[in-house]
Every structure is written in structure tokens, then in C-alpha cells.
Amino acid sequence: MTAVLVFSILTPIENAVRWLLDEFHTFGLPWSWAIVATTIAVRILLVPLTVRQIHSMQALQRHAPEMKEIQRKYKGDRQKLNEELMKFYRENHINPAASCLPLVAQLPVFFALYFVLREFSKHPPAGSLSWLYIVPDISAKANSHWSGYLLLAIYAGSQILSSYFMSTTMDKAQRVILMIVPLVFITVVAHFPVGLVLYWVTTNLWTVGQGLITRRLMPKTPMPSPFGPRRTSRTTPAPTKTDGKAPAPARAAAPKPKPPAPRRVKKKKGGPRR
Q1: Is residue 154 in some structural domain?
Q2: Residue 229's Cα: distance from chain center in Å?
Q3: 262 in helix, strand or coil?
Q4: Which site in 58, 149, 166, 188 is 20 to 30 Å from 96, CA atoms measured?
Q5: What are the pLDDT digits (tens) for 18-77?
């Protein structure tokens, strides 16, 4: 019953995905590159959600010190901690769930493409189903051919990079866990159709490019130096510590003595006497 309900909900999305694939294939793209083009079209449609995601990440980074202080203050009371964090989010107009919106919005497309590729495996469409002449069939499972394992390796690398750029507001331990999770789930992804892995590789690479652009556009806040402010020749020297006494005024430097003038010897007039 649940499977039938999910299938009926995804039917309009599946029809839209199949229509996009047909249009790109009619335009002249092979089915594999039609999947890549469909992925790019979906990510373009999700740009408004992506902008909200970027703004949410910027807000979390900007208010990270205050949030850490709240966590330190109420670390012994979990309920109070959650209440104070939610209050802090409302006061500063922060939506922590906004960072997950693009991923959640892609899940229906992901499952719809899975159903389309399953139909491809039962009723192969006209045209080649290979990808770069390396993967022979994008509707077959990734673990059915050596080329599928190559694509899985590309998927793992792209997923780690994507997770790295998506987890900039997390601490080091959480980021490491988020980048290890794809390696754990790679055994599950290996049973997906190759076209589905190709879709996820494309969206990961899009996320990596998006992260690189975001890092260049985001203003960088200079970190304070542990050695204090940097001093230059124009910096006023700090006063020296004394034993409770006022610092003595600086003595004026004594002028350097001038070197004595050379002694001149007068010559006598007339020649030498004979």
C-alpha cells in the first residue's frame, strides 16, 4: 500500500523527468548525457533554494561564537539549550533547516529517475545507452561491470568534496563523519543503476563548483593573531611597566660632536736663504 502511494505521488515527477530526457535526446544528446543535462536543469531550478542555503550558512558562520557560548552555558540542561537556541534563531532570523532544502528537493527527482531507468531496463529505448563508450548500459546496476566500479570511485570522490563544502559550519569531528558516510553507503549505491550514479556524480560536481564560487564571493573575516596586533614603524610603542611609578620622560638624544676642523699651516713668503 505504501509503495503504491509513493509511486502515485512520484508519477507526475517521473513523467516530467522522462519528458526532459526525451527532449534532450531529441535535441541530439545520448541518453547518458541527457541525464547530465537533466541534472543541470534541476539544479538551475533549485537556485532559489541554493541561495537560501548559502545565506543560512553565512548566518551560522557569523553567529558561531554566540551559539558556542549558549552551548557552553546550558550544556548541562538539554531542554533549556534547545529553547535558547531556538530563541536565538528567531531573534537573528536564522533557519538552520535551509541548508538541507536543496538536498530534500532533489530526493523526489532521484526516485523518479530510478523508476525511469528501471523502465529503460525492461523496455530499452531507441539509441545507445552507453556513457563515453566506457559504461555499456546506464540502466544496468553499477556493480554489473568494471566500468561501474570506476564510476563508483568517481562518485565517492565527488561526494566527499561535496560534503566538505556543505559542512563548513560544522566542527571538525562532524565534518569527518559526514565525509566518511559516502564510503559506507557505497555498497548500497553499487546496486543502483549506472544512470542514477551518473546523476548523483553530476549534482555533486555542481555542489563543488557552487562551493568554490561561494568561497570567493563570501567576505572573509580576519582572525585575530595570537601574538597581538601587528606593529609597524608607525605604531605607537606600548608603555613599559614600572613599579607603581610614573614612567620617566624620555631623554632627548644628545647631538653628536662635530669633528675638529683640520689645522692650516701658513707658508712663509720668499725663497729659502742661501
Answers
A1: yes
A2: 30
A3: coil
A4: 188
A5: 999 999 999 999 999 999 999 999 999 998 888 887 777 778 778 888 888 888 888 888
Q: Is the Cβ–Cβ distance between 132 and 218 less than 8 Å?
A: no
Task: Read off the DSSP letter of residue 169.
Answer: T
- Strand partners of residue 131: 135
Instruction: Give the long-range contacts of residues 14-23, CB within 8 A, separation 24 or more.
Output: 14/112, 14/115, 14/116, 16/112, 17/109, 17/112, 17/113, 17/116, 18/116, 21/116
Domain count, the chain: 1
CA distance 165 to 202: 15
Contact (CB, 8 A) for 201 and 150: no
- DSSP-based three-state secondary structure for 135: strand
| DSSP strands (E only) in the chain | none
The beta-carbon contacts of 215-224 under 8 Å, at least 24 apart in sequence, are 215/165, 218/58
Q: What is the DSSP letter of 255?
A: P
DSSP for residue 270: S
Residues in the chain: 274
What's the distance, CA 235 to chain centroid? 38
Look up residue 64 and give its three cell numbers. Answer: 558561531
The domain in which residue 143 lies consists of: 2-217
